[in-house]
Design goal:
The structure holds two protein chains of two kinds. Helices cover about 70% and strands about 0% of the residues of chain A. Chain A is mainly alpha-helical. In chain B, helix 1 packs antiparallel against helix 2. In chain B, about 40% of the residues are buried. Classes of the chains: A mainly alpha, B mainly alpha. The structure holds zinc ion.
C-alpha cells in the first residue's frame, strides 16, 4: 500500500476508530499518524470523545427493582 | 411455554443494558421501565425462536427496539440546524476556543463539563435513525454487523449513519456545552 497522505488518512478516521479497516489499511493509517502530528491530534480527539461518551452513558443508574419488574411482567401472561 | 427459569437467567444478564438503551430511546425512566417490561413479555412469548448459543443481548435489544418503534407516538423532531456539519466539528470548535492549547485532553474537558442528562439532550437532538444507531453503538460493544442485525438494516447503512451521526452528535454536544456555559461559543463552522 502506497504511503497515505492526510486526506486519505482522514477519510478513514471513523473506520479506523471502529477497527473496520483491513489490517493493511490499519497499518497505513497508523504509520501516517506516527509521522503527522496534525492528524494524530485529530484522531486522538475523536477517540477520546467516543471513550468519554461510552463511559458517561454506562453510568446511567438502574432502578433497584428493575429485574423484579421484568419478572413481574411475565406474571401478567 | 418456554422455560421460565432459563429465560430469567438470561434477562438478568441483559437487564442493565436493556434499561440503558431504553432510557436513551424514551424520554424518561418510567417509560424506559415500561419499555423494558414490554420487551420482556414479547421476548418471553417469542423465546422459542431464540437460537441457543447466539447473542441473547442482541436478540433482546432487537425486540426492544422494534417495540419502541411500534409504540412510540411520533418521531422526534428533527432539527434542520443540524444539517450542515463539517468534519471533526467538535475538534475544530475546541481548537477555536483555545481548548487544544490545554495540556489536558480537550475532548474530556467538554465531556466532563456535561452532565449525563445534557449528553442525552444532545443525543435527543439527532434525527431518529441516527439516534438509534448511536445509542446501539455507544451503549454496547456491538460490531457494525451486530448493530445492523438489531436494527434490521444493511451494514453499509449502519456505517454511514454512524459516521454522520457522530458528526451531528458533536455539533449537538457543542451546542449544549455552549448553552450551559461550559465553553464559550461564537464561531460557527
Ligand atoms: Zn496528516
Amino acid at each position: 500500500m502506497p504511503e497515505m497522505d492526510c486526506t486519505e488518512a482522514f477519510k478513514r478516521l471513523d473506520d479506523f476508530l471502529d477497527r473496520q479497516l483491513t489490517s493493511e489499511e490499519m497499518e497505513a493509517v497508523k504509520l501516517h499518524l506516527q509521522k503527522c502530528q496534525c492528524c494524530a491530534e485529530e484522531f486522538q480527539f475523536e477517540e477520546s470523545l467516543i471513550r468519554s461518551l461510552r463511559s458517561k452513558l454506562a453510568h446511567i443508574d438502574l432502578p433497584c427493582d428493575l429485574l423484579q419488574k421484568m419478572k413481574n411482567a411475565l406474571d401478567q401472561l | 411455554m418456554a422455560d421460565r427459569d432459563e429465560f430469567e437467567n438470561l434477562i438478568e444478564m441483559v437487564a442493565g443494558t436493556a434499561y440503558r438503551v431504553a432510557w436513551n430511546l424514551t424520554k424518561n425512566s418510567d417509560d424506559a421501565v415500561d419499555l423494558v417490561q414490554d420487551a420482556t413479555i414479547q421476548a418471553y412469548k417469542g423465546f422459542d425462536s431464540f437460537v441457543k448459543g447466539t447473542n441473547f443481548k442482541a436478540w433482546f435489544l432487537k425486540i426492544l427496539t422494534n417495540r419502541y418503534l411500534k409504540l412510540r407516538a411520533r418521531k422526534s423532531a428533527e432539527l434542520s440546524s443540524l444539517d450542515e456539519v463539517g468534519d471533526v466539528f467538535l475538534y475544530q470548535q475546541a481548537k477555536r476556543s483555545g481548548l487544544l492549547g490545554n495540556p489536558d485532553d480537550p475532548a474530556r474537558i467538554v465531556m466532563d463539563g456535561l452532565e449525563l442528562n445534557e449528553v442525552r439532550a444532545a443525543l435527543n437532538r439527532l434525527p431518529e435513525e441516527f439516534r438509534l444507531t448511536a445509542v446501539m453503538y455507544f451503549l454496547n460493544d456491538f460490531s457494525y454487523e451486530q448493530i445492523a442485525d438489531v436494527l434490521e438494516v444493511p451494514v453499509g447503512t449502519v456505517r454511514s449513519r454512524l459516521h454522520r451521526g457522530r458528526k451531528l452528535l458533536q455539533r449537538a454536544l457543542w451546542d449544549v456545552a455552549v448553552e450551559r456555559g461550559i465553553v464559550v461559543g461564537g464561531a460557527n463552522a
